[in-house]
Fold each of these.
Amino acid sequence: MNQQASEYEERILVTGGTGHLGRDIVGQLVDGGRRVRVLARLPGDDPSVEWARGDLSTGAGLRQALTGITTVVNAATFSPIAQRGSLRLVDFFKTPSSVDVDGTRRLIDECRHAGVRHFLHVSIVGLDDAAASLPYNKVKLQGENLIRQSDLPWALVRAGQFYYLLARLFASMRWMPWWMLPNAAMSPVDTVDVASHLIDCVNDGKLGIRDEIGGPKALPFTELAREYLQSRRLNRRVIGFNIAPRTAARLGFTEAHGRKGVVTWQEWLATNADEPKGRVRRTPLTPAPFVHSRRGEK
């Protein structure tokens, strides 16, 4: 897909476009002069994009949203753990599949009907049959497999844990005087860097498995916690313990291999405040105007 074709013909649909990553994707695409449509259960009124009312979990509005679309960036997901910012017993047994599996299947079918020429799917690092022990990881892997087995012209990008989710998790632990945490390493990353990588993948149009993306440096989970506490001027004792690599992978402690972001965890912490305590949303938030952020900017 050459640049001239993208300028004059390409129209991009972003699913999950009102979420943290989705907003960075849309903002950067708009900054680049691209024609962007956002699928949302609750459309906003930002005139810089086209809005399409639709819902992956039910399939409502998908066919209309894909009319005239040449490229899809599927950044939609639903994780109660991520929304809540904490892990509960129920999360070890079940997680909703209505978006990541059923919604992906519906989207594939409608993209085939619409003749979409480039389907870019966003997933998470470390997924395989052995490592996908958490139900959320299992549904993400099922969604990936639907993409891989489809006859769409697809591409797949796996990303590390997002910084904002890590901060949300640590914020939920503030009440604990001692933090018992594994020493396993992981590669969290800023959503701005992930969006930049995804847009590069849109621009070059290459298909198949693309480079993973993580932060500039993989760090032990204990070190990430200590840097969070230092930035928030909190006095908590972090006690590390070792776990087997296989166990670490099954719990989501995985390093990303491939592209590295430029925004460090310390830089992100210095420019971002903790969000309000999370809870699982059953209704969509009202979309706000897009802030067009480039790599490394906030």
Note: The first strand starts at residue 12 and ends at 15.
Amino acid sequence: MKKIHIDFSDFGFNWDKTEIYLYKVLAERFDLRLSDQPDFLVYCCGGDTHRLHTGVKIFFSGESDMPDFRECDYSVASVKLDDPRHLQCPHYVHYGQPEQIIKKDDDAEKILAAKTKFCSFVVAGYNPRKNGNRVEFFQKLSKYKKVDSGGRKFNNIGGPIPPGSQAKIDFLRPYKFNIAFENRSLLGYTTEKIFEPMIARCLPIYWGNPEINAEFNPRSFLNRADFASDEALIEKIIELDNDDEKYLEYLRQPYFHNDTPNLYFSRDRMLDFFEKIVSQKITPVAQSRRKSFFGRLFGRWKLVKRYHWHPLQPPTR
């Protein structure tokens, strides 16, 4: 295995670096050494520590954040970009396993028989300027039947469901439908919002990535983009709610095309991208910023980092 001196920064507080998705994937092919002075730094958008590093920097995000190639040399993110320095990786890839939504052993009739509730909705935050459409749709659909809202916002079930993905999936299981709208509509930006109801075998009502049909079988979920209006989509939901056979047609459809995980789940695809990163000799963009304010602090930062200790692996250089 090729030895790599690497570090991860700006992922928020209390992150175990060895539990980060990219660490686990890269460890399959490379001998990773967490280092205070890394040759390669993977950073997220949770802070500015990455500005103090002058090695090769890889931006990483599962949200709608766009890479700034004035700050990074490469990018692994959800958004779709036509740039050889970028690898598209939807958020659900480092969120769950493809086997969770493969349907080859499903009994559709049995699953439907356990669906005792109509529709669910989970939202923790709300900005009417950025994501008001999902709340508007929730309110419109609620005129037909009560839509159970289990999040912190617009809660109507007596209190929010427990935190964590598994709690949400458990909440979704008895429902026939789930409103799974993204925060934004961007090419490639697909999160766990569609993946969680798929795990729960709950028919997703989706809005977001304009190219979602390339990632998942469009006959296995309801896509707002396929309907002329909210009202037209609601008419379809009502039709499926009142016709078990038509609902089962969706439930029997595989989520993946041909029930085969899409290309974004390929570990080799990710590893080959990093093979290119570690093999190419480049001048990191961060080195051109040495005269910036943060660059002038770099010398002092090295002194601080000298006494920093990774709890699971001591520095190696």
Note: The longest helix spans residues 128-141.
Amino acid sequence: MSEAAAAPKPKKSVALSGVPAGNTALCTVGRSGNDLHYRGYDILDFADEAEFEEVAYLLVHEKLPDSGELAAYKKKLRSLRSLPGAVKTALEAVPASAHPMDVMRTGVSALGTVEPEQEDHSVSGARDIADRLMASLGSILLYWHHYSREHRRIEVETDDDSIGAHFLHLLHGKPPSAEWVRAMHTSLILYAEHEFNASTFTCRVIAGTGSDIYSAICGGIGALRGPKHGGANEFAFEVQSRYLDAAEAEADVVRRLRNKEIVIGFGHPVYTTGDPRNQVIKEVARRLSKTQKEMKLFDIAERLEQVMWREKRMFANLDWYSAVSYHRMGVPTAMFTPIFVISRTSGWSAHIIEQRIDGKIIRPGAIYTGPEDRKWVPLKERR
């Protein structure tokens, strides 16, 4: 055979050829080693002060809302908490043994079947679906939770002012304290977006095929379900709850490190000097623990954080103290990652919308390339 005949033929272009996946206007991570910005805003400026709905609006609707816009947005979200009868029926068929992440995926799929996206896949329609999902994912999870265990059909529409408060109200059957509501705001903000992680990439690939937003979000949930991506906060709690006190925890983890075991909850593939989210969620966990006068779990987590830095120069990531925070608010361990889903739906949806705009994957001029110099202004000062 001649060389020309033996050479492989060039492959034909396929549907996703030329689709860029490495540029986004939404988020930058680790440019200085330990920073995280949402649309140019440093999360450390607002994570313990803003409301999650402000950040969701920023990500999905591309601007910070003023007080009137935020009030209207929260009213809209409150109106979207109900579940169609067909979705409730589907959730009632899911056994109590199911993993809550599978319930979330099933609920999104069922809702997308009952309330499908329009064929034009418009930006405005996608934003409405993003809002619908963020508002109702807590309803999906907790309707199933109570029905599968008690055969009780709960009312999922509440007057709570926020997504986090709605979740806690449905979980515990009563409105949460202001401290718990603030803790949920901070946690949801910190989990909302994180550039090109595995689940976000999954959402963008599915959106790039021309599929609907529900399919893309289901793909994101599936990717987050994997133990190499989501679930680290659940594992962190399992580690922390092994021990009677901080001294026992230190001795055991030192032994594990010498045996080359991996301790999940430390280090990060993007940050090099520290996870900026950790310092915020750590203080949330400390406050919640002090209020309840129950410091054992926090003290164990803090001691292990010190050990991992001393022994391996590995820093705690967001999941490490998120586990303490959620436990202090009475959230079942298996629901830790589903809360992640509720939050990250804002970032996933924004990526899906960005992927679609102008039919070109990335809108011209939308890629955020400049220094992160936007200044956060508290809502009370925002006009």
Note: The chain has 16 helices and three strands.
